[in-house]
From TrEMBL:
Gene3D superfamilies tied to this protein: 3.40.50.20, ATP-grasp fold, A domain, ATP-grasp fold, B domain
Domain ATP-grasp: 100-282
Pfam families documented for this protein: ATP-grasp, PurK_C, RS_preATP-grasp-like
Keyword terms, alphabetized: ATP-binding, Ligase, Nucleotide-binding, Purine biosynthesis
Function of the molecule: Catalyzes the ATP-dependent conversion of 5-aminoimidazole ribonucleotide (AIR) and HCO(3)(-) to N5-carboxyaminoimidazole ribonucleotide (N5-CAIR). Catalyzes the ATP-dependent conversion of 5-aminoimidazole ribonucleotide (AIR) and HCO(3)- to N5-carboxyaminoimidazole ribonucleotide (N5-CAIR).
Pathway stated in the Swiss-Prot or TrEMBL entry: Purine metabolism; IMP biosynthesis via de novo pathway; 5-amino-1-(5-phospho-D-ribosyl)imidazole-4-carboxylate from 5-amino-1-(5-phospho-D-ribosyl)imidazole (N5-CAIR route): step 1/2
Claim: Plastid is one of the keywords in the record: no
Name of the protein described by the UniProt record: N5-carboxyaminoimidazole ribonucleotide synthase
EC numbers for this chain: 6.3.4.18
Signal peptide feature range: none
Subunit structure: Homodimer.
UniProt similarity note: Belongs to the PurK/PurT family.
InterPro entries according to UniProt: ATP-grasp, ATP-grasp_carboxylate-amine, ATP_grasp_subdomain_1, D-isomer_DH_CS1, PreATP-grasp_dom_sf, PurK, PurK_C, PurT/PurK_preATP-grasp
């Protein structure tokens, strides 16, 4: 009898999870509040609105494709011993203060931070940390809900919605991430370290392998493995790091799921992050994470579907397009991405630049404006 995997959340991560893993003979059920969510279109069973109970009852295992899912659904799935990974990671990720305190309390290096509960404490944070990034404790992602205070004159743009996480502004050399997968018996496989480039706070493109010192790459992998063990995580986990100019490796945040910076694995790894997540949560043997060729992705942010653009992108050697089929185009919204492979990192960077030019031209700010302009 086919295993049935329920997915809470119907976005593009669920879409790719299903499209990559149907070949395993797994049946997929998807729940989302939005009846037009992309993953619903490829699911074996669609559940919308309050129908999450039916999805859980029909599933052998329940997983999630993003953290902000119905807490009652999470509770029910866990009470039936069907939720993988467990609810701890969801609980941590729904509150940035909680996540950062957990990391610090468990001995992981993170940027210096303080918790701010009023105007006076905002001023103290600037005195203590110097340049500060204030973050709303809920809903801050892809640059949203983050306010950069480079001098006291910038404090006026920070909303008085407390509590806030006040984090030291880190002098970054590079931003990288580690995507890894852990089975229920504790086996861990780690993909090549990924180098990430952001525009106005949202990921624009990624490259694997990251062009960093091998010792730093090994350290990042070791930290990520230790975190997945501390969390007793099952499935894919992604850890985002700041590499400082002095060589420190600091955790920025983690994601208890498949992740945008791991999309390169669709063409660049022996088995993608999406299939390996499904394998892990269903207790199937994990697949090889070996890097096949230098690989990268370019996110298609806020751009409408345009067949001519797609044709030009596909004419670049080593490219493949994933279009997510979202019903509405919005600035900064992830509408699709381009996978790119090459024989060496230099050639890969050239192809990435060519794809960026085709997708955005000189007008990227129109599609990816700062959050406060959207």
């Amino acid at each position: 009898m086919n295993k049935v995997l329920g997915i809470l959340g119907g976005g593009q991560l669920g879409l790719m999870m299903i499209m990559e893993s149907k070949k395993l003979g797994v049946k997929f059920l998807v729940h989302d509040e939005d009846p037009e969510a992309p993953a619903l279109g490829v699911a074996d069973g669609k559940f919308v609105g309050d129908s999450w109970r039916a999805l859980i009852n029909k599933s052998d295992v329940v997983t999630f494709e993003f953290e902000h899912v119905n807490p009652n659904a999470v509770s029910m799935a866990e009470s039936l011993d069907r939720l993988r990974p467990g609810s701890l990671t969801i609980w941590l990720k729904q509150d940035k203060i909680r996540e950062k305190a957990f990391l610090k309390d468990h001995g992981f290096l993170v940027p210096r931070f303080v918790i701010v509960n009023g105007l006076e404490e905002m001023n103290k944070a600037v005195n203590q940390l110097g340049r500060v990034v204030f973050k709303e404790y809920q809903g801050a992602y892809d640059g949203k809900g983050q306010y950069y205070v480079m001098s006291r004159n910038d404090l006026g743009k920070v909303p008085r919605r407390f509590p806030l996480l006040a984090e030291e502004f880190v002098d970054i050399h590079k931003e990288v991430s580690v995507v890894l997968v852990r089975s229920s018996n504790g086996d861990v496989l780690t993909y090549s370290v990924t180098e990430n480039y952001h525009y106005n706070g949202v990921l624009l493109y990624s490259i694997a392998p990251a062009e960093i010192d091998e010792e730093i790459a090994s350290r990042a992998k070791e930290i990520a493995v230790r975190l997945t063990e501390v969390l007793n995580h099952v499935g894919v986990l992604t850890v985002e790091f700041f590499i400082t100019k002095s060589g420190e490796v600091l955790i920025n945040e983690f994601a208890p799921r498949v992740h945008n910076s791991g999309h390169w694995t669709l063409m660049g790894a022996a088995v993608s992050q999406f299939e390996n997540h499904v394998r892990a949560v269903l207790d199937l043997p994990l697949g090889s994470v070996e890097l096949q060729r230098p690989s990268g992705i370019v996110n298609m942010l806020g751009v409408p579907y345009n067949e001519e653009v797609i044709r030009r992108v596909l004419a670049v050697p080593g490219t493949s397009v994933w279009w997510y089929g979202k019903a509405r185009v919005k600035p900064r919204r992830k509408m699709g991405h381009v996978n790119i492979v090459a024989n060496n990192v230099g050639e890969l960077r050239k192809r990435i630049n060519e794809v960026l030019s085709i997708v955005y031209g000189n007008d990227i700010g129109r599609y990816v404006p700062p959050w406060n302009l959207t």
